[in-house]
Amino acid sequence: MSMNLDITTTMVLVKGQDKTEQISWLKHDRKNQRVEVQYKSNITIYKYSSQNIKVLNKPKSINIEHCLVNIKGVPAYKVTKVLNFDTLHRIIYEIFMICVFMQKNENNPKQLNRDRLKNSILEKYKIPLLRLPTNHSGEEEKIKKKLDELL
Question: What's the superkingdom here (predicted)?
Answer without folding.
Answer: Bacteria
